[in-house]
Fold these 2 entries.
Entry 1:
Amino acid sequence: MLKKILIANRGEIAVRIIKACQEMGIPSVAVYSEADRDSLHVQLANEAVCIGPAPAIESYLNMGRIIRTAHEVGADSIHPGYGFLAENAEFARRCEKEKIVFIGPNSKALALVGDKVRSRQTMEKAGVPIIPGMKGIAKDFAEFESEAKKIGYPVMIKASAGGGGKGMRVVHDSEELKSSLEAGMREAKSAFGDESVYLEKFIEEPRHVEFQALADNYGNIVHLFERECSIQRRHQKIVEETPSQALDPKLRARMGETAKKVIKVSGYNNAGTVEFLLDKDKNFYFLEVNARLQVEHPVTEMTTGTDLVHQQILIASGEKLPFSQEEIIQRGHSIECRIYAEDPNQDFLPSSGKVLFLQDPVGPGVRHDCGIYSGCEVPIYYDPILAKVIVWAENRNKACLRMINALDDYVVLGIKTTIHFLKEVISHPQFKAGNTTTSFIKMYFDEQEAKKKPDENLKLALIASAFDSLDKTQVRKTAEHKDKEVFSPWLTLGKWRLGGKK
Amino acid sequence: MLKKILIANRGEIAVRIIKACQEMGIPSVAVYSEADRDSLHVQLANEAVCIGPAPAIESYLNMGRIIRTAHEVGADSIHPGYGFLAENAEFARRCEKEKIVFIGPNSKALALVGDKVRSRQTMEKAGVPIIPGMKGIAKDFAEFESEAKKIGYPVMIKASAGGGGKGMRVVHDSEELKSSLEAGMREAKSAFGDESVYLEKFIEEPRHVEFQALADNYGNIVHLFERECSIQRRHQKIVEETPSQALDPKLRARMGETAKKVIKVSGYNNAGTVEFLLDKDKNFYFLEVNARLQVEHPVTEMTTGTDLVHQQILIASGEKLPFSQEEIIQRGHSIECRIYAEDPNQDFLPSSGKVLFLQDPVGPGVRHDCGIYSGCEVPIYYDPILAKVIVWAENRNKACLRMINALDDYVVLGIKTTIHFLKEVISHPQFKAGNTTTSFIKMYFDEQEAKKKPDENLKLALIASAFDSLDKTQVRKTAEHKDKEVFSPWLTLGKWRLGGKK
Amino acid sequence: MEFEFLIDNALHKISLEKKENTFVVSDGEKTYEADIRFISPNIISIIIEGRSYRVYFARDREKRFLSLEGQQFTVQEPLEGGESLQKDEIRSREDELMVKAPMPGKVIKIDVSEKEEVRKNQTLAVVEAMKMENEIKSTIEGYVKKIFVSAGELVDSEKPLIELELKSKE
Amino acid sequence: MEFEFLIDNALHKISLEKKENTFVVSDGEKTYEADIRFISPNIISIIIEGRSYRVYFARDREKRFLSLEGQQFTVQEPLEGGESLQKDEIRSREDELMVKAPMPGKVIKIDVSEKEEVRKNQTLAVVEAMKMENEIKSTIEGYVKKIFVSAGELVDSEKPLIELELKSKE
């Protein structure tokens, strides 16, 4: 078993991995940038080491520094989480060279699946269905232009190295191509340290269906069924669920087997996700392998009863898979909502600042993977994901109702978040009907305006504000008396407590 | 479907039921005593009505007042939770008469199973194995004395009306009998409003294994497997789990069928639990039917994927059971720990007062059913249960590790709780080995003393205290400056935030 | 006591008086009793005619943030003498000409130069925060009067980036 | 600065000095640097030599409640001049004679009367709280000197219930 794990990440996913380490009795080491001294992962890990200034390129993307730190603290392994170095084959290679276990796929497989162009070629050869698109990296703009014409507009720009929507742009005509390419390349560079992008046919209103796979170091491969991640904004998922409403058992089995084939021909090990686009006619196309733990992994955990981070660590420790394909069974329905620090009323503009108050959603079947706390600062430097709410229930309808309630119970004051917006998504009749496509937000929420708030709630907000003002006035008058009351435990029996009227 | 549910309870179970109502879209009405104005259930329900002074007898046990309130607010149903009026047949009868749906068994079945003596007779007749004990209610002390002699010491005093350990006493010889009977009757009176008690053979070191059952109004009955609740103090459960380590599939099936038979011959409907004692030789004896939602119901929910409160409401609404026995499958392992406001180092003396700070346990597979919050008061009037931590994991070993971590993450400051004690129970080698009997706490924790705290933690506590003193000193000096800093969001960029060194 | 608050730039009035252990609320339409308490520093519990509300609450300088039933309100006290509303109108006209950073972030590039003519919806600059690039677009037809920042600079929210002038001004 | 604290009646000393952005701790044995911060009003984060600790913290009058790694500490500042320890000894002798309520609750019954002789472990009174009856027992052999409460009375923690006197005193 691994002896000590350094977690080369931050936020909710670092916290998630620390929890798994604690449960497995493995010491965890947090690394942090200067902007993250007060972050939750720093407080929860057994050890914490500052690895540089706030910009990710100088800290969370600083491979040399991270590997050196692993040696210094005696960590025999690194969990990269998602984003940052998670899918960086160079980093995996350096870990291998330095005899540090990279908790993820081997660097060769990572290089292959990370190179979207080469992996498309591999899959095409293996008979896996793929989306029409570029077969290689463009030399110059002219080549992009001619490729785009060949594929036919609309085309999609995608980062070779990336995932998670970073660097992705839809281009509707040749006029837009240049500026979109530039923006996409800049974003790709900033997110992954690699500016290469490629083009592919843009499939309209598809569903995004992916299969979770686990592969040990001995060639055993299982899939843990699908996740549907069609609800997206800025090409980035915000709601995920499993099972998908679009699959029947036959299609599910076919796609699952295809996913395992993709993992096999890639020589892939550890946890990975095979992404497909599913078009209106239920044709599916291989998109890419997400060679990491996914943001949305919890919905798979909730329905299959498997802990994917535990499994990642076990596989990296050289254990064999503890189950066969037949033993993995889906139960009930699970939905995840991603809580971003963004303002849905202002085109999802990021919102950094201080979280004045956080109220966690709780209750049966509600899980909250969270990287923030009351009083923390959300810095401008990193991805705006704050937390995830995951619900499980016996069926999809109950899961929706549970999610709506969980989002109602969830309060973040001080910064803008997607909480209320997500509630409107889940409550939408088209969502309830299962009509989820990647155009969902565009189709139903494009003209998202600050909705008029019901008069009753407005009135209550006014009453509460007036009460606070009144209270402040009176506190000032009797400050000392109040102070004592606020901090005193119930050491004296008295007043109404003893059965008398208030 | 029911239209509006009044919840005749308080604390964590009221909160639990409110959550179910919210998910099912049914308005909920909280009732509260004068000591509970600030309680969580009052804040979370849609409506809240004060029903009397702090002592339960004048509020939560005041049947007339509660039924009147239901009529006043237009509630068509009452959920009694556990304790208080939950197993009061008179209350169920009055609800029936007043055309209010009592969310629990019909009053006739409730009267039967609630009368421990009569239900023993019924079960004996039906061929259900029972513990040797009194066959009727004693006229006077002399009769108790002779019955005790007949059964043979040690004997157990039990409340006819009760459950949950209230009024229960073990009597080892005739000398103890009188004072124990008196105390048991007083406790029974105070807890259930009925002082009748009876005697039964005390089985040494048994396991306490119970089966959850659901019965609709049309004679359909299923069981949802067992819970083992052997870990007790003061004859009250503090740790529950499922599956039980003592059952094999054959015994499980046999006990499950017996449980269904008990429900059937009682004419019982809605959710109920059939309690058995399992002796060292794996003989099981029917103990009683707990005619209510149990404190420990979540472990069944976690492993069977069923929401028992939803099912209670559906059954009470006249729905048929949505599953057959074959469709109910146990998956993984679940453990519950009850968090009481008690001092384990002082013989579990109750500890009321102000909760200065609460940190919820969170994480994958961790559920927290909670009735308190930071800043709330824990009054002296009611049961000291504050909350429950429930974990689910793939197997028992992982569930134990998860529970230990969850308890480590769980902080209540200001009052004494059982959190740390429970961690020691779950960590105990005998618990890990599955050697759980009702004598567990007595055997391994009788000489529970304040353990010496590791020097490192003591040192850290000193450092934190010194830091606080230093901070206070400095805050006083620069009070105004500080105040601004504490409440200011990040409106200005400055200091180290901008990539510079701290 | 009478209170005035601004919510979404609209002025609202409410009156609250303490009366023994409850409060009397007058909202202009109705007068009723309310049982109101601070449950903890960030939670206010209100019971009105048997209906229970839990209002989450945080204060930050002159702003109050409230949330109930999943809805958020930002409540401010009005500036003296109802000035605020008028001010807001002026400000919104000014805002069109003074292009400001919509959030704290880093200026990635400036797409225009001083004196340059700009069309409506033309991209003026790109600001990045939390890994997302945001194009700052012109809402008017006109000219670039002044540029206050350069690429690579870190900017705070509301920081002026570019000043425009209207075409009609010529 | 030097600090003295009482934990479980034992006196502990510690020294803490601010040094730029860290603190220098001397615990009598060693001196080391510590990065210490209030993360929120109830959480203190401490990093010492790369090891990270999250200490939960609440203050209540003169008492501090702390929790770390699941362990709880109640920390008090000592009374002047180390008096406290001596006081505690006196108090514990007094405690045996002055029987007090162990927790807030209701007196259910008094099992003895004034002047009555009592054995060790004899039940003197029953106090109920949170539905549990707790028997208050004598820790000495002696006589009942005075009874301060009667059945049905609500009592606070530490409220004197019964005063005893030692048998040897006769």
Entry 2:
Amino acid sequence: MSEQTVIEAVRATLQSEMRRDDTVIVLGEDVGSRGGVFLATDGLIDEFGENRVIDMPLAESLICGVALGAAVNGMRPVAEIQFADFVWPAINQLVGEASKVRYGTNGVKTAPMTVRIPYGGGVRGGLYHSQSIEVLFSHTPGLSVVAPATPYDAKGLLATAIRTDDPVIVLEHKRTYRLVKGDVPDEDYTIPIGKAEIKRPGTDMTIVTYGLMLHYSLQAAEMAAANGIDVEVLDLRTLRPLDADAIAESASRTGKALIVQEDTPAVSISSEVAAIIGERCFFDLDGPITRLGPPELPPMPFSPIQEAAFMPSPEKILAAITKLSEI
Amino acid sequence: MSEQTVIEAVRATLQSEMRRDDTVIVLGEDVGSRGGVFLATDGLIDEFGENRVIDMPLAESLICGVALGAAVNGMRPVAEIQFADFVWPAINQLVGEASKVRYGTNGVKTAPMTVRIPYGGGVRGGLYHSQSIEVLFSHTPGLSVVAPATPYDAKGLLATAIRTDDPVIVLEHKRTYRLVKGDVPDEDYTIPIGKAEIKRPGTDMTIVTYGLMLHYSLQAAEMAAANGIDVEVLDLRTLRPLDADAIAESASRTGKALIVQEDTPAVSISSEVAAIIGERCFFDLDGPITRLGPPELPPMPFSPIQEAAFMPSPEKILAAITKLSEI
Amino acid sequence: MLTTTNKPSDPTEQLSGTRLVELYQTMVLSRYLDERVWLLNRQGKAAIAASAQGHEATQVACIEATDPSKDHYLIYYRQFAAMMALGTTPEEMLRGFLAKEDDPMSGARQFPLHGAHPRVDLFNFSNVIATQLPQAAGVALADTLKGSDAVTIVFFGDGASSQGDTHEAMNFAGVHKLPVIFFCENNRYAISVPIEKQMGVESVASRAAGYGFPGVQVDGTDVVAVHEATKAAVERARAGDGPTLIEASVERLLPHTTDDDHTRYRSAEDIAQMANRDPIKILSELLKRRDLLTDDADAEIHAAAKKRVNVATDTVDAEPYPSVDTMFDHVVDSVGGNF
Amino acid sequence: MLTTTNKPSDPTEQLSGTRLVELYQTMVLSRYLDERVWLLNRQGKAAIAASAQGHEATQVACIEATDPSKDHYLIYYRQFAAMMALGTTPEEMLRGFLAKEDDPMSGARQFPLHGAHPRVDLFNFSNVIATQLPQAAGVALADTLKGSDAVTIVFFGDGASSQGDTHEAMNFAGVHKLPVIFFCENNRYAISVPIEKQMGVESVASRAAGYGFPGVQVDGTDVVAVHEATKAAVERARAGDGPTLIEASVERLLPHTTDDDHTRYRSAEDIAQMANRDPIKILSELLKRRDLLTDDADAEIHAAAKKRVNVATDTVDAEPYPSVDTMFDHVVDSVGGNF
Ligand SMILES: Cc1ncc(C[n+]2csc(CCOP(=O)(O)OP(=O)(O)O)c2C)c(N)n1
Ligand SMILES: Cc1ncc(C[n+]2csc(CCOP(=O)(O)OP(=O)(O)O)c2C)c(N)n1
Ligand SMILES: [Mg+2]
Ligand SMILES: [Mg+2]
């Protein structure tokens, strides 16, 4: 057991998975001697060499297409997209191709590939280093999408992703990389895809969230506790498939649901969570299904003032908690 | 006024808009002498010449990138993506770029471009000629998305799209092209973006839907009427921005909501509609917010038997209506 | 009874006369079956078909230079004759077109020729043009990591040459000298778009120079020439010397697919001139000039092929469609979670 | 007081001695301002900066051969000196880096150098590498439809050459002989990825042959050579003869951005050798050899530039940040609907 940041957990997991299984390779832009722009792959090229740590040309469709080809030919590639905002050129290979390999070949071929994607804002990234890109992946049958928010979950879910025989998208919130620390066991473990986790039990209402917003929600829940409101915080952890049972159980139990996300709300993860609750918890709810997200603007201005105004914050979450608690 | 099919309305509108405005150009694969694979551009090259009807190389990112560049330099391009399933290579130019031109230049540049995309299934298209691709576009601030289901709406919304100073995605359900006929006025008219329409008034419940499913829902509503259930059918028509007021008004009034869509349900338009209802109609509802869609499978098998099993049908919608009416 | 030729000669050898006749038989069988599939479409039994008519020599000769026991084949929808050359039976081919339960490629989930082959490493994941090229680079990369000397052959059309994926794949293959053959069947049309609107140069092969490996243009109606070119590329790749781009010029004798009408966009002369470039006619004449084939033997080959196709049609026509419940299989291999 | 040079000579002329000195002044000013921006980053005032240090000769000479009154410029994040050459003031540049309200490119919504220029048709919609190339083809296409003789210049790096968009744009420009100049600033690195891992050939310019237009390699530290090459390309484009691909070889004197540390991936020798390729040193020596510049005049140019940068820094430092409410403007221009 040791205390690690999220990025340290990611790096250690890549290393241990590469030691564990020779077919695990890492590929992406600057993953070699640069060690990745966030240093997720720092040192890997020294240990595993250029054959297994491949600095790719600047071409995301290529990165994912090559990962897919290598995956169907015996490798377990872990591709890195440098920033989520640059994944769009690869959508064709991921959403169009990888997601349907098993289905389209009637189970003859499988694509055991992992794509790690640092996403999200609050890092002065402006319109093109702040995007949340979970919607399309989370909508697509044949893909799995995980979004760990803690070092513990980062390790367990990345290990699961790499060992899974189908494509898994791993969304790492880049603001959590160094911000979030936590205990990580030294021994090997995995976390099942599709299981949410109650990160804070509570009785008065349920916050459903993921990513950086988990941490803001936990802070808001502490502030609310001081005001006598006992908030449960459910961390989705997996965005496809959503853990509908866990969502419904918690919302039914507390009777109120607040969904908090950083991504813009229209047609998003929070929409689906709301739909699940609206369909399954209808007779147990004591208040409207509430969502808190940023305004419907391209995410998100470079201006620090506007960036802060755009992002949900513990204070904004607390305000939403208070409002919902009064209904 | 004349009776037209959807594809006839599309073609006539392209023609009249090109006559009306010299800066309107059409570009895409096979849009020239082939007239488009669905014949949406049939005859246009004869009237307007190769300069304004441009057969593009086989490259969707190029098609949309060129449309964008031409749009910011004085043209009003109407790009055609041959099948929705092939739009993925262009996501970067549409979702990444076009959507943020006005915002990212603080209003200095605008991109008056239209992208027509035939989508949807029920045409024996298999996994790669049947996809519904509305989710990502409908999620993206800076884009508008319309999905007309009738010849009247196809004309009015396409004209609006072309005259709009921002990028508009026009989703045309390819099964409606020849299947759906209706009266279309000869004179010029437009339909505002963002306005849903009640296609059948009713009192017992609201079906919210769009595209091909509008027609199946209307059929199901007729069947339900025979059983004494009076169903209102709301056609979204625009998917971004959704007409939240119209959705909330209808659902609140009837007290029950069934959302019908052809796209797979997880994180989709139906999720957002459910979320809107769950947030705004909570105290007016008499039953759970219900969704009907296909199973969570890659859309959709080539096998005709399996394709039929995949797609929602009037019968399946009727069954959902009946079930919801009994709650 | 005529069988397909899944027993290529030693690929390092020149083609023998006997072998040439065998390849001719495969081409003829492919042609008859291909024609039959179009007929089945007109009868409403096959939803769609793309044809290899005009491409047969190219495909059969290319496969002949490879080793199906270890090489990888990434095809697109037009490699009908290549699939025959790789030993796919007429019944298997027809099951794809008729969406029958036992369609070996995808169990009727996908268009014909899409999915994965049950016996050789041939696959075609999607209809989306050019996606297979980066995938092929990845397949080849994996072989280099495994120390295998397998070669990856990836097929694409002249239209596909315009896609970004094509460029990205060739560039990467050039950087790492991957054992991959980029095999372009240039029929001068992408549906209706003629080559002049597709690219500003005469040849796709000329692009190879920009990636650091050889580009070869070859007459795709010439079995011997295509075999030679492919053989050289295979040897190069197996020896670790890197990729080759081969461009075979062929004619698309029929419209793009059964949904197309090429008289809308091709002139009558353009259509008429193709008759001289029919590879079956050309090979038949060559074989006769070289005294490898008599008129009688030729007629027999045709009759046998026709009969073989009839038998296969009757068999497959009677076979069942897949049941609904199999539709839910093979989305992801996961326990738990509502995938 | 030194001003930037937004009054290029007749682009069809050779560069005069006086004009060369003016370009030198722009380069020096760009360099000082560029250095200042890095300092502001280290002080925590500028969130991020990419530098044009080492690229100045290329950019200034390229712009000099164009006509800002009608031509179009699609830049990426590294065209700091090009923006100066196009008359952007130091204050305007700094407003972008410091995210001030009056940032002329994007009102502080975007990274520095992103958005659209208020006076010339220069823009840069996104940080996403190579998206600007198809856009440039579209801009040029519109000009041909309008009958304008404007030229579109699109800048990109060696890394960008690997993107599919780059290929697609060049191919299309070749088909339609569009008036566009593909201008590659090849500094041999894409962040840390060296050119040998980026491509299997020596030169990006060699790709042009595969698209049917000229590719030109030029020493990007040589103002006269870059100007000549660009001038020829501009004339070609204006005359309707189509695109040119220009590849200027330069050095990226600093790490990729203020967030990068190039000692992680560049050898000490590799870093050291760059000193000889500093374009300011090279041009200064040339001017002195040609007796166009004295040591004193050079020192004055440096002093003036430094002063100019100080003034601008003080001015902009005191300026306000944008208010929150402007954040909601300019999403789409629509009445009705909750965009
Ligand atoms: C990305 C993509 N865009 C468009 C299509 C539609 N389409 C199918 S085949 C085809 C033409 C392909 O031409 P070519 O590559 O020359 O192959 P050929 O059919 O001539 O063998 C097009 C445009 C597609 N399948 N994929
Ligand atoms: C599509 C995309 N992928 C990755 C990045 C991250 N990135 C920013 S700059 C850069 C390197 C660009 O290199 P090059 O094109 O040579 O330009 P240079 O910085 O050397 O001028 C990368 C990988 C990006 N901005 N866009
Ligand atoms: Mg072709
Ligand atoms: Mg570079």
